[in-house]
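A common beginner's mistake is to predict each chain separately and then try to dock the pieces by hand. The better habit, illustrated here, is to supply every component at once so that their relative placement is modeled jointly.
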Amino acid sequence: MKDIARDLGVSAVTVSKVLRNHRDIGSETRERVLQRIKELNYQPNQNARALATGKTHLVGLIVPDLLHQFFAQLTKGVSRNLRKQGYGLIIASSEEDPEFEKQEIDQMLARHVDALIIASTQKTAQSFKRISARHIPYVLVDRKLEGLSANFIGTDDVKAGTLATEHLIEKGCRRIAHIGGDYLSTAADRLAGYRAALAAHGFDAPKKYIFLRTQLDDAAVATGYSAMQALLKLQPKPDGVFCFSDPIATGAMQAILEKGLCIPEDVAIVGCGNVLYASALRVPLSSVNQESETMGECAAKMVLELVNSRAKTEPREMRLRPELVARASSDL
Amino acid sequence: MKDIARDLGVSAVTVSKVLRNHRDIGSETRERVLQRIKELNYQPNQNARALATGKTHLVGLIVPDLLHQFFAQLTKGVSRNLRKQGYGLIIASSEEDPEFEKQEIDQMLARHVDALIIASTQKTAQSFKRISARHIPYVLVDRKLEGLSANFIGTDDVKAGTLATEHLIEKGCRRIAHIGGDYLSTAADRLAGYRAALAAHGFDAPKKYIFLRTQLDDAAVATGYSAMQALLKLQPKPDGVFCFSDPIATGAMQAILEKGLCIPEDVAIVGCGNVLYASALRVPLSSVNQESETMGECAAKMVLELVNSRAKTEPREMRLRPELVARASSDL
DNA sequence: TTGAAAGCGGTACCAA
DNA sequence: TTGGTACCGCTTTCAA
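With all components supplied together, the output reads:
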């Protein structure tokens, strides 16, 4: 910047103003500066600018696992919307490890991101207090934290559970099992939806039909597989299963087919997440669509609003409406 | 930092030195400073540090599409390795758009990343000249650029094409088609491998059996679908197809099954990339494994070596050895 | 072992 | 409309 100023015999301040479209600059001077900027292919140092203004124009995103299509889509939505507004994105994966997530949060705080978007794997609010203490706005996505009142965007998971379970009931299933997750708010909600749907129709949800397993990363398929194996040993066998996620469902289907049973005739399956390849699977998988990309876009929008509004408003909560996509795995 | 210094009656310089483990600091002073840092939960501002040292400890990664599992895995590898070394990662998706990619590169340069890792969709070396002009080291992954001598890590794509095609030949296929890509170095290499394998066995590769299509993003499945439809109209029909990627193969398989034909009896299929769900597909898909995660780790390693070695060495090139994973789609 | 001063590359404020 | 000056938070150099 100084070079440009010197070359043109103006001050650095003038150059700076031109760069930011400050209005009180002579049009002639402006042209000359612009000209030289082009020539030198000059770009202002964002770090220096950040230091001076206190705004990095950087948003941090932390997800449990980028390999999971749900989070990849979410990321895409966030990314798209953010860049449209001139913000950069730092992404970190916590690998489903709370300790790792804490470190990543600290890293991002140290880099002074303007805001954070987090799909948290943590069980306590501790880290989030740290974020608040720094007055950095943040939005939780997908997963809520118990006892933490924060901005949140996710799926209406109770509804997701209800949709899936009612669909199975409508298709004639009478012994509906659930393979779900542990610790996660999403898992608890989907389970609640499952229970509610069964209760509403006068069926019960016997404990032996409910499997709650911690599913780490890509191990989800294996988890679904083993849980389903266990379910198939029960008497009577379930005739329908609502799975917490599509990877879980994929594993479950594998276990069923290996036993020589048919989907959906012997056991119908419904997953959640509606991955892109759902229809290409061995048996096309019925699933609850969560619109993860939209979720990402909303999160980006919300977080930027927070950044741009000085006033600290009440935490907002937003739930996207899930939709059932019926395919062969439940086509009775 | 100043606060800490003031509180303790020492200078900011002293605090700074403690932070960086500078050796000439009295152990007593060091303790006091460390103590206060803990109390205040103080973290140095990385941006300020970057400004002063000229190193941001940030690496930029640009991929065409995060939704594509190949790039998601690559990203995971990069991320893991980078953070292990205390580097942060900025990720951007170019959405397979060269113009977009240029902008992202400029953004990253403006943020003064220490290095770049790029899976480029560009057709010219222009942007890369800009990077070199800034003396920022970079590594190209997966895709090479014609006429650009740069550090590169990718698959041995010629070998990948050969492996897949020879596999089909061994399985007894005699009319082997290829659905490939356009513009990409990977596509050209896999095609070359396909041709070489056919030639080596005395078969020819008739033009009508070779479909080269631009595949944008998630449209890959649709591309594979339509290309396969066209192939099935030929007389005689191909009895084996090597597809550029697994999504392409997924689409192709869909077209075959819809026609009432059998895989692999009527047409055998081999894909490339070995996505995680390959074995769960309607017909488990044979594919060439590319070890994308390892590729990411190598890229991270290489780029950090470049950052840490002042000397500008000759561009290095590294090719990972692909491996065929045979499944039902080619089990004749 | 400690610290004063200068500077990294910009921006903000206010005076000219 | 322009520019001088101070400062953002940290590091580096060099003298005490």
